[in-house]
Structure formats: structure tokens, C-alpha cells
Design a protein that fits this description.
The complex is a heterodimer of chains A (108) and B (122).
Chain A: E1 9-12, E2 18-23, E3 33-37, E4 44-47, E5 61-66, E6 69-74, E7 83-91, E8 96-99, E9 103-107
Parallel strand pairs in A: 1-9
Antiparallel strand pairs in A: 2-6, 3-4, 3-7, 5-6, 7-8, 7-9
Chain B: E1 3-7, E2 10-12, E3 18-25, E4 34-39, E5 45-51, E6 58-60, E7 68-73, E8 78-83, E9 92-99, E10 109-112, E11 116-120
Parallel strand pairs in B: 2-11
Antiparallel strand pairs in B: 1-3, 3-8, 4-5, 4-9, 5-6, 7-8, 9-10, 9-11
The chains are: A mainly beta (108), B mainly beta (122).
Amino acid sequence: SYVLTQPPSVSVAPGQTARITCGGNNIGSKSVHWYQQKPGQAPVLVVYDDSDRPSGIPERFSGSNSGNTATLTISRVEAGDEADYYCQVWDSGSDHVVFGGGTKLTVL
Amino acid sequence: EVQLLESGGGLVQPGGSLRLSCAASGFTFSNYAMSWVRQAPGKGLEWVSAISGSGGSTYYADSVKGRFTISRDNSKNTLYLQMNSLRAEDTAVYYCAKNTGIAARSDAFDIWGQGTMVTVSS
């Protein structure tokens, strides 16, 4: 089955740039979606189809996808960005949705 | 306003059954695939099942295949998850989510419900 690998944690100072990676075999050939989840809340879609943003999501959130790694980039990080972030793809080989294990973003 | 409201969660004994419902509003329900995603306490997101807009195609995670059944009633704008032969490891918050497409493939989940807790314990 297809596996997505995320770092368990990423720490960044306010105002700096956070990069959260999502590794998978030839993930560049898939559409990658990213979710933000704050404690006690439902996930929120922040990037879809590798690099598109839903309405209402700040331009500070961006995504890229190539080769074996997709990346969510959060520029000018704010305290309110502290959350868990998950990547997600559709695996056509198994007809399954696959989530990464999640990355906890800590704003120092 | 686009909204999803889950119901039906609760405490059930191992081997028991439960049916979750998700009432949708604010969009043309039949034009979108729908999915269930769960999250065990303190754990990450786990996809459970998906169904196409017409209901003609369904997909299941290996962990629930043969025990759970996803369905939808487009006349009632409602998504269901029938859960049988429940196990302790099925304990989780269950979210329904709206897919961005109609076929349930390569979709993102752009709208989520607030979740309903299912606890499987004796």
C-alpha cells in the first residue's frame, strides 16, 4: 500500500518560514492536498491539488510537489498557525485515500 | 452556508453495530462525492470510506471492508455509515467530509463536519 511520510514535528520562530514535507514514491505524479487541524477542531483544507488555495486561506500558505516530495510552505508564520498538518493523496493502485502521519507545527 | 452535521455516535459493546448519519446543507448534495474519515484519540487522520455522487461507486479502507457500509440518500441530503462487528480499535471521532469532485478519486475534502465520537468498549 502507498505510504506518505511526514516529520513528526517542525518548529519555527514567528515571522519565519515553515516547510513541512510529505514523502511518497513518485508523489509528484499525484495530486496532494494539505489540511490544518487545531486541537479539538475538525481539519481545514489549506492547499489542494499541490498548490491551489481554497478561498479564505491566506496567501502565506503555499504548496509544491515534485519527484518524491511534496512541501507545504507557510511564510511569515504566526502563533495562530500552530497546529497539526496532514498531507493526503488518492492512491489509484488501491483505490484508497492515504493520509500522512501528520506534523505538529510549533511556533516558538 | 455549507454545513455537515454528523449524528449517531455513542458507546457500543464489541461486536455491536452503530449507524452514523451526516446531514448536508448549503450545496447540491448529489453533485459531490462524500467520505468518512476517523481519528482515534491522540492519533492522526484515517480515511474510512468514500462514495460517489450517484452512490454507484463505493470505496473502503482495508481495516473496515466487510464490516462497514457507506450509503447516501440524495433525496434527503444525507450520508450514512453502517458499522457492524465493531472492535475496540474502531474507537474514534468520525468525521464526514465533502469531496471536491463527484467521483471520489483524487479529490480533496473541502468541508468537514464537527465529528461524532464512537466508543467501542465493554
